Structures are given as C-alpha cells and as structure tokens.
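#onboarding

Welcome to the new folks! Below is a worked example of what a typical request in this channel looks like: someone posts a single protein sequence, and someone else replies with the predicted structure as tokens. Don't worry about understanding the tokens yet, we'll cover that in week two.

Example request:
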Amino acid sequence: MLEEKIKEVAGILAPKPALVILTGAGVSAESGVPTFRGPDGLWRQFRAEDLATPEAFARQPALVWEWYDWRRQKIHSVEPNSAHLTLARWEKYFPFFVLITQNVDGLHQKAGSTRILELHGNIWKVRCTREGKVFENRQVPLSQIPPLCSDCGALLRPHVVWFGEALPADVLEEAFKACSQASVMLVIGTSALVQPAASLPLFARQHGATIIEINLEPTPLSTYADFSLYGRAGEILPLIDQHLPRENLEVKG
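Example response:
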C-alpha cells in the first residue's frame, strides 16, 4: 500500500509543480535532535514551557541562556538526515520551491537548503534587546552567559519565538503567500496542532493545492490530506525521489 502511494506521489511531483514544504520536529528527531519538551526534555527540573518565555528571560536571563547554551551544544554535533538532504536536492530542481519550517535547529541550512522560511526563528542567531539587530552566533559553548551585544553592550536574546510571542509577521505573510501559490504541499513530521503553522496546509488546500502528509502516525491534518504516508521521512522522501524521472532532476544552467 505504501509503495503504491509513493509511486502515485512521485507521479504528482514528476511534472515539477509549484511545491511548498512544511516541516516540523519529526524531521529533526530523525537526526537525533531532542524535542526539549515533555518528560524527556527536562533540564535541571525545568520544563521548556518555564524557560522559553519573555517573562523567564526578564527574570533570569542567565538561567535561560544556560539552557539555550546546553541545547546548542546538543544540536551542534547533529547532522542532517536523508529527509533534509532530499529536500535540499529538490530545491535545485523545482522552479517554484519554498521550504517552511517550524524547526529552529538550522539543519535544513546545514543540508544545503536556502529557500527557507523559519517560522520560529533560529537557535544559531541572537538578537539585541535594545536595537533589535540580528546576528549569527555559532559559538559552542558560549564564552559569556548571558551574551552581550558587541555593538552596544545590551543583553542579547535567542532569535527564536517564545511561548506567548507572535510569529514574525513578515515571515508568516510570506508563508501564506507561498501556500496560496502552491500546486502541491508536503507536510512532513509535524503534529499539525501548533497554530498558526497548522493553518498553512488548510490554506493551501483552499487554494487548490494537493496536500501530501508524511508522518509517523495520523494527525488532525490526515482527514484533509489527499495522501497520508506513514513512516520515517528519512526513508519515504528518498523513495519518492527514486521514482522521479531522472531527466526531471537535472540541474539547469
């Protein structure tokens, strides 16, 4: 059954339709990135929901930064898996390709993807709390906790979206625009529960896109998806890729 669905999905992708991807924590989990939430995500008896908030940062910025420093060290040695690598390859072959991710670990970039919309920010970037400037910072471990802005000396914060904060309006607007233009949308490794990201596939569907879900188990989106492929993204995406016509996957220019 899965093999037949994979062939059918490959047939849909073969003509190089306008393709939009949405990825979630499940893709990163296959590389060994901890979820940092739930019982397995406890750090010094703190839950992520207790630390990833503006209020926690205002009270104890050093504590929050110690947690992020620990997370960055965990993620630093992790490598992209075959799902990340397949999507990075597809970016070169589909004329219209937009990768929207809920992940902050930077593994899509590490795999070679460039056309990325990061809904929740990036753990390898920091933002000045005074001037709002965003910098890349890949220092592991951090030499100073909490880190300070090299330009003005103000406190830096992780450039991620915390609980209680809105997603960046410009990124969200681009994401909805891409979904309105999609002919096909792949939704990979996400629970389809966290808003507003969970609305994106439904929005694409309303605009005529075929929705293809790849996940370990059924989700609230499964009812609305045209295809639901259950299994590891790192196994299913390469199988779809194998069924695509090789001449369609030649890099032009």
